[in-house]
Specification:
By secondary structure, the protein is α+β, with helices and mostly antiparallel strands. It has two helices and five strands. A hairpin with a 7-residue loop joins strand 2 and strand 3. The longest helix has 17 residues. The chain binds 2'-deoxyguanosine-5'-monophosphate (DGP). 2'-deoxyguanosine-5'-monophosphate binds next to strand 2.
Length: 117
């Protein structure tokens, strides 16, 4: 847990969220400011600031997050590929558009038009 990290507080339950999925290592919850009809975030429970800090020790965790994403996207209402689908985005650093410095994967989908993107 990192002090003053919003997503660490969500993981700890100190800030409420609309939960999509949880296991020992991963939490997924709806984005507070959705770009699309389906928009949730997947985070590792342990604080990692961004993709810039990942190393070989995180390969299994990141692999699990990415392989879980399609299943959760369908669960949350994305239509199946190829007519439906989803977008996976991980913003990294200021120039990458990252605002919350706890590694997270955006999963967005649903019928267009979207609010953004
Ligand atoms: P990024 O720019 O990639 O760092 O996106 C951060 C996202 O986090 C942004 O889409 C809004 C979302 N967000 C920020 N604060 C909260 C919060 O307190 N709760 C939830 N559910 N989402 C949040």
């Amino acid at each position: 847990m990192s002090d003053n990290c919003i997503f660490c507080k969500i993981v700890a339950g100190a800030i409420p969220s609309r939960k999509v999925y949880e296991d020992e290592d991963i939490l997924a919850f709806h984005d507070v400011n959705p770009w699309a009809p389906v928009h949730f975030l997947m985070v590792p429970k342990r604080h990692i600031p961004s993709m810039a800090q990942v190393g070989p020790e995180h390969a299994a965790l990141l692999g699990r997050m990415l392989t879980l994403a399609p299943q959760l996207a369908l669960q949350e209402g994305c239509r199946p590929y190829p007519e439906g689908g989803f977008r996976i985005v991980t913003n990294t650093g200021a120039e990458g558009g990252q605002e919350v410095h706890h590694l997270h994967v955006h999963v967005m989908g649903g019928p267009r038009p979207w609010a953004r993107g």
